[in-house]
Amino acid sequence: MNIPDLKYDAQGLIPVIIQDSLNNEVLMMAYMNEASLQMTFETGYTHFWSRSRQKFWKKGESSGHVQEVKQILYDCDKDTVLIKVDQKGPGACHTGHRSCFYTEITGSEICGKVFSEEDVYGKK
After folding, report:
1. Looking at residue 124, what is its pLDDT?
2. Which of 10, 25, 30, 46 has the fewest Cβ atoms within 10 Å of its own Cβ atom?
């Protein structure tokens, strides 16, 4: 399948929101380029472009907490992608939380960790 013409930024990236397909919880936000979006579509698991490491990464490649793709959508301006997933494992966030969105603007955490990032990723 050909991916439609989307509006990537000057670096060739597009923001991608990852949402739980069952309860609609927003799990994370990351970036994809055309190739990682194609990989995601073809494999059925999310792949992203790491801006800091300048390389592709499959979500869950270290933790085993992969994201099985259920639906891929794009917005009316074609400049943001929404991917609905079945989150495997306890969480999507590398900090040990289920979602990356666990802190209120005041700095208060609204939920606890669901796994130990030290156990999963080793000492930081």
Report:
1. 55
2. 10
Answer whether 50's CB lies under 8 Å from 75's CB.
no
Of 82, 88, 66, 68, nearest in space to 30 by CA: 82
Cα(91)–Cα(68) distance, integer angstroms? 13
Question: The whole model's pTM is what?
Answer: 0.93
Distance CA 100, CA 121 (A): 16
Backbone angles phi, psi at 37, to 5 degrees: -65, -40
CA 16, chain centre distance (Å): 7
DSSP 109: B
The encoded tokens of residue 71 equal: 């639906």
The pLDDT tens digits for 62-100 are: 999 999 999 999 999 999 999 999 999 999 999 999 999
